[in-house]
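User: Hello! I'm new to structural biology and keep hearing that structure can be predicted from sequence alone. Could you demonstrate with 1,3-beta-glucanosyltransferase? Please show me the input and the output so I can see what each looks like.

Assistant: Of course. The first part below is the input, the amino acid sequence of 1,3-beta-glucanosyltransferase. The second part is the output, the predicted structure written as tokens.
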Amino acid sequence: MRAASLFATVGLLASTVLADLDPIVIKGSKFFYKTNGTEFFVQGIAYQQEAGGNGTTGASASGATTYVDPLADAARCQVDIPLMKKANTNVIRVYAVDPTKDHTTCMQLLQANGIYVFADLGNPGVSINRDTPAWNGPLLQRYEQVIDMFSTYTNVIGFFAGNEVTNSLNTTSASAFVRAAVRDSKAYIKSKNYRQMYVGYATSDDANVRENMANYFNCGDQSSAIDFWGYNIYSWCGDSSFTQSGYDQRVKEFSTYSVPSFFAEYGCNTVQPRKFTEVGTIFSSNMTGTFSGGIVYMYFQEANNYGLVDVSSGTASQLPDYGYLSSQMGKIAPTGVNSASYTATNSPTSCPAVATATWAAKASPLPPTPNTDLCSCMYNSLSCAVKSSVTTDNYDSLFGTVCGYGGGSVCAGIKTNPSTGTYGAYSMCNSTEMLSFAMDQYYKSQQNSASACSFNGAAAVKASVAAGSSCASLMSQAGPSGTGVVSSNPIGAAVGSGAAASGTGSAKGAATSITTPDHFIIGMLAYITVAGVAGASFILL
């Protein structure tokens, strides 16, 4: 029996290798199968127990920062994947995966069932937060690890760099940090010579920001623009219609969009059961010329009541919604074009104008690429630094104190201003490094007076380390006040946690940059410390 089992396993693995799915590629505003050029439409299901979908970012809707990796549970996948296939599914979206775990069985099962994957790059504890956004070393490291893990699977279409990070007029500045994440994720894929995998974004259906959002991520330098656009939309409730739901207006708005767009989430649940009458419209000729299908939210039944299947008892119990979805998906037959006969004619949009009331992020310049070598060099060069005994709970007040000196000039090297595209060279460093830099700037401005490196006992003079040639080059670009532009690109190199994070022991991880309007709000500098290892949680200070 053991021999038979072994041979069966070997046979399964061999057949899976032979059955690698044809990669999906992008041409213009459409997806295509790479080999035969047939247009590809997303017939998807969101496959994750609650972890950041349906309008949440960072922590899950319940506030938790832990998550269950759905593609690391082989037993669960063996039950769920055939059920999703039975519902005519060819795509799943996963919101949080653990790149340190083994995903082989689930990914092979997806391959065998003809199912592709879109994966979010963050997780509930390590992602770009809309209220205090940042793009830093631990975030980049997390994104790179997820890309690495998925790079060997041909059924991975691409990644979401963020999900509804900007969802209101007062969070538009956060989009600059997401666009920086798009830029660096795309650059990383290219630097590793991976096969073509794409990076996009999933937005909310908020009338106040949706047009500017779509334009912002599509405009300007295409090296930092999204490859595809995901639209989370819940406007079709019950027995609605193409016009009543507003789908007709969305088609009009995206008819000239230059990259593929699709519904990254859909499935309003205000009318129960969900009969998914929108499916026929989404995959009809009214929409397939503009949108490339959509992803139903969601597979697992949870407190939010969006589930298709209930697994709480240990088995997979199909809910009424599953039956309705299966029936509707079984009726669709979307027709498209062949890539050989398709000519892309749409062009990138114009960037939204920065205006106080409506949009607060320039598309260029963007936040700098995280460079932990630069941060380590800077920290080692300092003569005044925050003490390792000071907890991060005290950092907020310390930032407020030191950045109040000199009209905020000592914090110029860590300041960020998305509305003007101004970013300090050290704004992507961790909280200990940034705070120490600001303290050292003040210390030097006071001619190294011993009392200037006290901050009520929170800081102390330390021995600086002479910069080697590589450090000297980096810091020369940053300039003495940290306001220069560092052109050296660390993408493709190892991204660590920074010398200060490990050297001082006080920072539990990397902090976000201090995001301000045209001036510092002294004493009210909100920031987040992100754990320096993938999977650890945000600490809100």
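User: So the tokens describe the shape?

Assistant: Right, they're a compact way of writing down the 3D structure. Reading them back into a model, for example: The CA atoms of residues 126 and 139 lie 6 Å apart.
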